[in-house]
Amino acid sequence: MTEYEISDIAGNAFANGMNSFTVFFSIVTAYLVAAHTAGKSFSTFQIVIVNMCYLVAAAFFGAFTTVAFMRGAELTREVQFGANEKIGSDVGWMWIAAIIILVITASLCFMWSVRHPKTE
């Protein structure tokens, strides 16, 4: 493959990662809106279903985002190696994974706080 083709595929991987990240945050937003508006009135069974569906969808799109950014970073390193250049960091995708884990954890904590409010 030529350097241009590898760069093009890397750009597509990053674009796929950004699109998946957008879907991920749409899922998180829908979960937070549902938690805020109806979280208190859900039964335990409904909470289990909502949380499981949320975790599956968020984990899938979060993992796809991370893998797409990892692949883009690998291809970028390959182009850099061929051009004897160094552009950016090799671990940038790890920040994406950390953000995804933090957002999923924070959203579950938000649902917990809605369902179990502290009475003062």
List the helices and strands and how they pair.
Elements: H1 3-38, H2 44-83, H3 92-115
Textual characterization of the structure:
It is a single chain. The protein has one domain (3-115). Helix content is 83%, strand content 0%. It is built from 3 helices and no strands. The protein has helices at 3-38, 44-83, 92-115. Helix 1 runs parallel beside helix 3 and helix 2 runs antiparallel to helix 3 (92-115). The model has no long low-confidence stretch (mean pLDDT 89).
Briefly, what is this?
Helix content is about 85%, strand content about 0%.
> What is the SS-derived class?
mainly alpha
Beta content comes to under 5%
Helix content: over 70%
Task: Please give the domain count.
Answer: 1
Please tell me what the overall shape is.
elongated
Poorly predicted segments:
none
The whole-number mean of residue pLDDT values reads 89
Question: Descriptors for this entry?
Answer:
mainly alpha; 83% helix
